[in-house]
Design brief:
Layout: H1 3-18, H2 23-33, H3 39-54, H4 56-63, H5 68-79, H6 99-103, H7 110-113, H8 118-128, H9 132-138, E1 145-149, H10 156-165, E2 169-172, E3 179-184, H11 193-196, E4 200-202, H12 205-213, E5 222-224, H13 231-240, E6 244-246, H14 257-264, E7 268-270, E8 278-284, H15 298-302, H16 305-322, E9 326-336, H17 345-354, E10 359-366, E11 375-381
Length: about 375
């Protein structure tokens, strides 16, 4: 495919997304119907689609419309690419721009220019203060790719060397001692020997920093209550060099965890009905995902005020559920991949107000400016 044909394909996929088809489903449908497209073509179209989704509002403004074609035009204008070099009508390229399209488009401003919903902007500012604009701007760009060195399988030097032998260049990421940022060859990671043999795992640097900050010690009984795919459970097992129990309200989310644990030489026990006491319970609760919207931008546009209220209610219920599982003096660790105070410090404050005797021992909000995704965590100590 030519670069112009890739632009046309992305515009068509974006139209399907705008009509309500989930992004991954729309991309899969296009790739299945486009057997001529090679792996580089699929990657390029995917990049175009996700670049627009991160900038859904501003590309519509810049392009002068809400069609996939207009949004791709807006993206090219924002990137400083001359649209006439791609909108040629030749082969499978988009048809040439007409005069109304050339005249359309404007500079986006305010929340539109930062690619946030209008309803969210005031809460975003209240949550982040001076960091509100930089954090929103960061979400308009692609996220770095981070790996976690699995210390159960390799030393940092061994992991870095194994990655390098497969053409993957990395550098140390300062947020966690196990974190590597991929600076070259990111698309090779999943097929690399270092990954398939469990020397490294894909995991954001801030997510790794959350696990590194937990008061873990050998011999503890530890539960990952909202395990999902199990990334934090695996990271805790590596730091403990011992067992971690994993639970999720939807067990299907953990379907790959046994295989991942085997590859990583990690001791993970799937626990359908956890019962305390535990020395540490980690609750990486369902949330807006606002800290990772540059990786999953659909969530930015699907979130609503009612949806956020439902999430905070779920977060409250999870805290209430797990608190009795924590042994006296033990730790309830609360985490989200969110940057919204309503999901973070406000939930912790509400829990502490309702549970005398519990205390806050540490708390941190990670922002994209720290080098990874937006993440929040707090450690709460149970009364003796």
């Amino acid at each position: 495919m030519t670069p112009a044909a890739r632009v046309q394909a992305a515009a068509e996929v974006l139209d399907r997304i705008a009509a309500g088809t989930p992004a991954e489903q729309a991309l899969l449908g296009w790739s299945r119907a486009s057997r001529f497209a090679g792996s580089k073509d699929r990657a390029a179209v995917r990049d175009h689609v996700f670049d627009v989704m991160r900038r859904w509002r501003s590309t519509a403004a810049s392009g002068g419309g809400e069609s996939g074609r207009a949004r791709m035009l807006g993206l090219l204008r924002q990137q400083g690419v001359d649209p006439d070099t791609l909108f040629t009508g030749q082969g499978h390229a988009p048809r040439p721009l007409d005069e109304p399209e050339r005249a359309a488009g404007r500079v986006p401003e305010g929340a539109e220019g930062l690619d946030l919903p209008d309803w969210l902007w005031s809460a975003w500012q209240a949550s982040l203060g001076a960091e509100a604009v930089p954090a929103a701007e960061a979400l308009r760009h692609r996220a770095p790719v981070f790996l976690r060195i699995n210390t159960l399988r390799a030393s940092p030097d061994e992991a870095i060397a194994a990655l390098s032998s497969d053409g993957i260049a990395t550098r140390a990421a300062p947020l966690a001692d196990t974190a590597l940022e991929v600076v070259e060859g990111a698309r090779k990671v999943a097929r690399s020997k270092a990954f398939t043999e469990g020397l490294v795992e894909l995991q954001d640097a801030a997510s790794q920093a959350v696990v590194a900050a937990l008061p873990l010690a050998p011999g503890q009984r530890v539960l990952d209550y909202c395990a999902g795919g199990g990334g934090k459970a695996l990271a805790m097992a590596a730091r403990l060099a011992g067992p971690v129990e994993a639970h999720d309200a939807n067990p299907a989310r953990m379907s790959d965890l046994p295989a991942r644990a085997s590859r990583a030489a990690a001791e993970i026990a799937i626990t359908p009905a956890p019962r305390g006491p535990y020395d540490l319970v980690l609750c990486d609760v369902p949330c807006s995902g606002s800290g990772s919207w540059r990786r999953a931008p659909e969530g930015k546009w699907r979130l609503s005020p009612d949806g956020l209220a439902e999430l905070t209610a779920i977060q409250n219920r999870i805290l209430e559920t797990v608190a009795p599982m924590v042994t006296g003096g033990g730790t309830l660790a609360y985490a989200t991949c969110s940057m919204l105070a309503a999901e973070n410090r406000e939930r912790v404050a509400a829990f502490l107000a309702a549970h005398p005797g519990w205390s806050l021992t540490q708390e941190r909000q990670f922002l994209p400016s720290d080098g990874g995704d937006g993440f929040y965590f707090a450690c709460l100590s149970a009364p003796h």
